[in-house]
Design goal:
The complex is a heterodimer.
Chain A lengths: L1 E2 L2 E2 L4 H20 L1 H5 L1 H36 L1 E2 L13 E12 L7 E6 L2 E6 L13 E10 L7 E12 L2
Parallel strand pairs in A: 3-4, 6-8
Antiparallel strand pairs in A: 1-2, 4-5, 4-7, 5-6, 7-8
Helix pairs in contact in A: 1-3
Chain B lengths: L5 H30 L6 H19 L6 H4 L1 H10 L4 H25 L17 H8 L8 H15 L3 H12 L9 H18 L29 H23 L4 H6 L1 H9 L1
Helix pairs in contact in B: 1-2, 1-5, 2-4, 2-5, 7-8, 7-10, 8-9, 9-10
The chains are: A alpha+beta, B mainly alpha.
């Protein structure tokens, strides 16, 4: 769903939660008159299960869209091997092949991107513009952070991931 | 004979301690259960709690953190706090001790790859140490100023400050030849300066680029790939130049060693990839 320039995506988990609670509410309201009398606030509450994740996705994606040009201007193109813990906080651009994709269903995708020099985890805290799959050749723009923010190996906090050619 | 590292010995003891404590506690629980002792069963659970803390500590000191091993003390406390009957406690403790042992094996083989623990080391680790020792003699005439330039260039490169690296390396490469510096060090500065400039401006690999001379090959850490693989040759030349700077800085500027140790993981990565 498009709001302004932002393509809002709701995760499959949020949809599943909405569907489960809708079924529960329908069943409960059929069998319980007490539940039926509360439908006036239960139905809006049910829709909030969809509206809140959509609003959060809209906010994060619009913020990412705002900072992308800033990152684009500041980023240095590096090979994966060069990214090390002394580069924490640096804005980088890498090109590589997607070897693995995790947590896409949560709208918090994580990729393992490799070039000829090595591989690195690329974390994204919102959904992507494009549907990135294994074996896609991508350009990643982001900031080097530690895996668990204060500790762990360097990973990329991704602001944008774009397919640059079909594998 | 190589010296035994005391840290490594204590880590090995701690690694043995994890199954020893957890299975020790579980064995106590079995004894209590068989003999029908009226002692509080939670005493035996302490073995699993201590084993968890030891495992979490071992996970904490690895540069690549294992979140599962790190959180085991939380589970052990839940385990300790929830009252269970004696038979369930025995089964739970045995399963928990087994799980801790599996996590320890996982930690050892997946999260403690050689060379990755270099960032907080107080000395050079292998294979970097061997390379530095092999090239030590070349730097006997190197001026402290050139060695310091080498440190700054290497550290700034590791930090991704490519503009600063290019400036420093350019300055160092322009020093007069009678300063006593090895000619291969000047070439290394020139190569690093060229690469850093390209990186700073996000430019692609040029068709022609600076390389070492054939007589430098004995000092280079990595052999050059076949001539037809231009990309690999270009990047291997950079790795060799950076490692030469590291070696010169380490050997000729003792005061800079703490800065170099902070970037040791990067140097190890250059050498081993």
């Amino acid at each position: 769903m498009k709001i302004g320039n932002v393509d809002v995506k709701v995760s499959i988990v949020a949809i599943a939660v909405f569907v489960v609670f809708t079924i529960l509410l329908i069943v409960a309201s059929v069998y319980s008159p007490e539940v039926r009398s509360q439908l006036i606030w239960l139905i809006p509450a049910l829709f909030m299960l969809l509206v809140i994740p959509m609003a959060l996705n809209y906010m994060s994606r619009s913020q990412y869209a705002e900072i992308e040009p800033i990152y684009e201007a500041q980023a240095k193109t590096v090979r994966v091997k060069m990214i090390n813990e002394n580069m924490i906080g640096k804005i980088v651009r890498i090109e590589g092949v997607v070897e693995r994709v995790y947590f896409q269903f949560l709208n918090r995708p994580q990729y393992l991107v490799a070039d000829r020099s090595g591989e690195i985890s690329v974390k994204m805290f919102t959904s992507t513009d494009e549907d990135v799959k294994v074996n896609d050749v991508v350009e990643v723009l982001g900031q080097v952070i530690r895996r668990y923010f204060v500790t762990g190996d360097p990973v990329i906090n991704c602001v944008s991931i774009r397919k640059i050619k079909k594998a | 004979m190589p010296e035994e590292n005391p840290d490594r010995n204590s880590h090995r003891l701690m690694e043995i301690g994890v199954p020893l404590l957890s299975f020790g506690g579980a064995s106590l629980a079995v004894i209590f259960w068989i003999t029908g002792a009226t002692i509080d069963f939670r005493l035996s659970i302490l073995g699993c709690v201590l084993g968890s803390w030891l495992l979490a500590y071992l996970a904490w000191i690895q540069p690549k953190k294992d979140i599962v091993a790190l959180t085991t003390p939380i589970y052990s406390f839940i385990f300790l706090a929830v009252p269970t009957d004696n038979f369930s406690a025995v089964i739970l403790e045995l399963l928990y001790a087994g799980s801790l042992t599996i996590l320890l094996v996982r930690l050892k083989y997946r999260f403690s790859k050689p060379g990755t623990a270099a960032h907080d080391a107080k000395e050079l680790a292998e294979p970097l140490r061997t390379y530095i020792e092999q090239t030590r003699d070349i730097w006997s005439g190197t001026s402290p100023e050139a060695a310091h330039h080498a440190t700054v260039a290497f550290v700034r490169f590791a930090e991704g400050e490519f503009g600063e690296t290019a400036r420093r390396s350019g300055t160092a490469a322009g020093q007069p030849e009678d300063a006593g510096n090895a000619p291969c060090l000047t070439r290394a500065f020139m190569i690093v300066s060229e690469h850093a400039t390209l990186l700073d401006q996000s430019l692609p690999r040029p068709a022609t680029y600076r390389t070492f001379l054939p007589e430098d090959s004995g000092m280079l850490a990595k052999p050059l790939p076949p001539a037809q693989d231009d990309d690999a040759g270009f990047y291997t030349t950079l790795d060799n130049a950076l490692l030469l700077l590291f070696s010169a800085a380490w050997s000729a500027s003792e005061a800079d060693r703490p800065h170099l140790l902070a970037c040791q993981a990067f140097a190890q990565r250059l050498l081993s990839s």
